[in-house]
Amino acid sequence: MPTDDNATAGEPRGTSDEIPRDEISRDAISGKTDWKKHGIRIVRSGELSDDTAQTPGMTRAEAISRARVGAQKLWAGTVVVHPNAKTGPHHHGELETVIYVVRGRARFRWGEQLEFVDEAGPGDFIFVPPYVPHQELNARQDQPVEAVIVRSGQEPIVVNLDIPSPETEADIAQPDPFHGGLGS
Asked: Quick one: 27 and 55 in the same domain?
């Protein structure tokens, strides 16, 4: 998609005729860069695209990528895991992934047989190293898990794995004796 010089500020633009980043760096030093065209991009919440790799049990939406804003080294987007749902086991190849939980309670399983488990809540960051088999679960029955994801590369690598989950549907939302209800 060619760049549209008449696009409004913040509109995602294609990259087919954009200046390569190394040229932008050289031009920035000499003061020749068109920062309006090659500066900050804002992707509005209603402009995210679900045209990205998916895993059963979750919905990913792309915000920052090469195709959408010209990013060269990062991919960022959102993910929603619906109440009492679990994703299929998967990994992201050579990519490093950071997840920031905005809302809800996420349970993570990882390892060759998903034998390790921990939970994260709003404000928590999760780091997923390359090739780690993992599964996201919503630990609550009453609200979705909403999170922001950032990956170290542009390729939409999602390798879905045929590993049985050690948790049954009944295991996902267990009573939380410390808070008088389901996992918080």
From this structure: no
Tally the C-alpha atoms within 13 A of residue 95's C-alpha that lie toward its C-beta: 22
Task: Report the alpha-carbon distance of residue 50 to residue 58 in Å, rounded.
Answer: 11
Percent of the chain with pLDDT over 70: 74
Name the one residue in this structure whose structure tokens are 């679960």.
137
DSSP reduced 3-state for 152: coil
Mean pLDDT is highest, among 56-65, 68-77, 120-129, for: 120-129
Residues 100 and 159 placed together within one structural domain of the fold: yes
Residues 121-143: tens digit of each pLDDT: 999 999 999 999 999 999 999 99
The reply to whether 121 falls in a domain is yes
- Compute the distance between CA of residue 10 and CA of residue 37 in angstroms, rounded to an integer: 10
In terms of domains, do 23 and 50 share one?
Answer: no
